[in-house]
Amino acid sequence: MTVQRRIAAGLGAAMVMSVLSAGVLPAAAEGNHRIELTVHYSSPTVAGPRAVEARSLDGRDGRLTGFDVDRFGAEYTFSFVRTDPDAYLGFTVDDGTFGEDTRYVRAEDGSAQVWAIDGDPRGYTAPQAIPDEEVSWREGTPYVAVEDLTELLDLTYSYGTNGYEFDGAPSGSLDILTVFRGRDYYEIAVDTNRIGSNVTGNMLEDYTDLVFDDVDGFRADGEYYLSFGQIERLFQVGTHTQGEDSWLLLPADVAHDELQRAEPEQVGFDPGRLAELDDYIQAQVDDGGPAVAVIVTKDGKIVKEDAYGDALRYSTHEENGQTMPAELLPAGQREPASTDTLFDLASNTKMYATNYAIQHLVSQGRLDLDQPVASFPGWECFADESSIYTGIWTVGGEGGIEDVYTGKDTITLRDLLHHRGGMIPDPQYQNLNAAGELWYQTTEHTDRSGIIESICQTPLMYEPRSTFAYSDVDFMVLGLIVEQVTGQPLDVYLEQEFYAPLGLENTHFNPLEHGVAPEQVAATELNGNTRDGNISFGTHPDGSDVYIRDYTLRGEVHDEKAFYAMDGVAGHAGLFSTTSDMAVLTQLMLNDGIYGGEQYFTEDVIEQFTAPYSPDPDEVDSSSYGLGWRVHSASSADYWYFNWGPSRSTFGHQGWTGTLTIIDPLHDMTITILTNMRHSPVIDPPNGFAGAQYPVADLVPISAHVYRALTNDTTQVPTIAGLDASLAQYIETGDIAGPIAHQLTHTLDRARDHLDGSRTGPAAGALERFIAHLDHPKGPDTLTEEAATELRSQASAILAAID
């Protein structure tokens, strides 16, 4: 059937003319060299041919070559010429909830398909029909048995009893259904309707009140049924109902061109439960806890961004040229944190500076991760014969070096990204007492010769590739390699390649040198790096003290190596940012590296860098690290920060100043938590800060509250197509007969035609007449109560959507 005949069959002659006037041509007219994008769009109103537009990531407009209507909604086919067969193709729908939101999908061998629903920012693969006999209705809510979801969702399940204290119930006292899907598992107490997701030993020891929750389900006839809403919540899929048809939709890999703001309930959050997070944080802040800033994105939408507490609570001051110890400021002199406050990211710098730079260079083919460090020009001294065992870094010394280890010249960039190079975690270059002959301080980060020499002289703590040892030096080296490969200082390169193109105005190394006022930055340590006077860096041979800051730090990186040995610009620490900028940076990883019409690194590179790694293939499932990224393991609780909510596909990083980033592909969600918990007195020298004693500084309860706020409510959005299907079925079964059948059909056709022509007023009037016919049947009409109730409900919902 030709495009025109399909249109005529679905819409009528009037719509055919509007489609043709929009420039729709048969597909054959495009020629042989093209790729296609098909968008299936379901809306409460019938979407006309102009409701969807398409444009490729490389800037080519898609030409509408096909339009059709089916029971799901409208179908649009676009052709792109002179475009790569695996290109990213963007589409924008006239969405009644989010407006224009460009989403990209990747073509494969010249074509791509995506299903979209009005009011839902996600994209889906082909709908999978749920057989009518498998849907059980209770009080208007549809449910499906877990046993019937195995093929639809590729899951497995088993029944047994609880092997640990489950939600307060003793071991062996509850019937438990365990559902496995991918790396995740869910345990449901089928008689109490309580659920635990990815429960680990850590979760059973701490914050146990945040582990278990209600599940919308019921047990019947030996099976366990989940509501449509619970299915969406657990497995992050879509459900869709049109008339008597129900579908399950699996998410497609969709990149959102730019973040937009949305109300939490629009992407599946319960605002009341999110408010519980506000109360939780504010109570601890009021009790003297650290400042906290949080931002949450889901499905390409910012749904929460808030700040609590004081960016400056304590401060030093000068008297007679001397710095006096920090004191708690009077309430009127404290400075509150805001969502515009910059925080010291600490080790999150490793990801959003160095890792991003490396991922970019690898995507461009400019960097080989298997190249040894020693092979880069200027790094020839990165060899065993350069090592100096000095200070506390002597064999058997305080630093923990047990023996002389060799093989430094074999260490590759990949080894460093895996933290398996054998490097000392913290050589303390700035501290003469610790570093000895490795000591180095500078105030010039454009001359790296001194720090490279110190790193080359640093002995190994372990044999290369023999053990995992999280090391700042690994990323110091990687940042320096980026500078060498690009020929630019790390901060300059990142500003040019990432931060400026992304529109980030508050992401900087050395922010005070970029026009940022100290008042815009959250303070960290109270008395420099002295740990309230408990630390010094030693004395020079001439009797002078080695320089150490003793004033309240604000706008200068806290990390000692980054500040003293690398002048604030380092691969392991030094980056400052705000919640809104971090939302963009974290979204890049969910977006296949795409943002604002540009791709910064490829999907393949992202997969490579976030894949769990272990030298023993049998231990990969318990690994919690990839290439730089910390990842949630599939079978252990090794990485503390990804328990209590995140899926087991989650990755991100934590920072010593009290920062955490969570990137969860399953939930299409990112969470950034920024705190200044080191802005507090030291109560247990050297590193026991009072601010770290608050549960909020543990960070995981914050993310747990976010995940608990995801709703399991079941919502179904009626559409014109669904209403038409329901009406046709009731007429076919005889529930509607007589003149009213013609009246309803005619009135619904009028409503559809008006909506196709964007005449919402007349369309609303037609739907009101449709409802009036249902309310006042006449003469020999047949209209059952069931049919009237269902059609009235759908029509009223569509009418509300139009208004």
Explain what you see:
Helix 17 packs antiparallel against helix 20 (785-802) and helix 18 packs antiparallel against helix 19. The protein has 20 helices and 41 strands. It starts with a helix and ends with a helix. Strand 32 and strand 33 (598-599) form a beta hairpin. Helix content is 26%, strand content 23%. The strands form twelve sheets. The chain has a seven-stranded mixed sheet, sandwiched between helices. The protein has a five-stranded mixed sheet with strand order 3-4-1-7-8. A five-stranded antiparallel sheet has the order 12-13-14-15-16, with no helix packed on it. With 803 residues, the chain is an alpha+beta fold.
**Percentage of residues assigned to helices:** 25-40%
Number of helices: 20
Main β-sheet description = 7 strands, mixed
Supply the helix-strand structural class: alpha+beta
DSSP strand tally: 41
Across the major sheet, the strand order is 22-24-23-37-36-35-34
Distance between the termini: 36 Å
Strand content: 15-25%
Question: Any low-confidence stretches, pLDDT <50, length ≥5?
Answer: 1-32
Mean pLDDT: 92
Shape: elongated
Radius of gyration: 30 Å
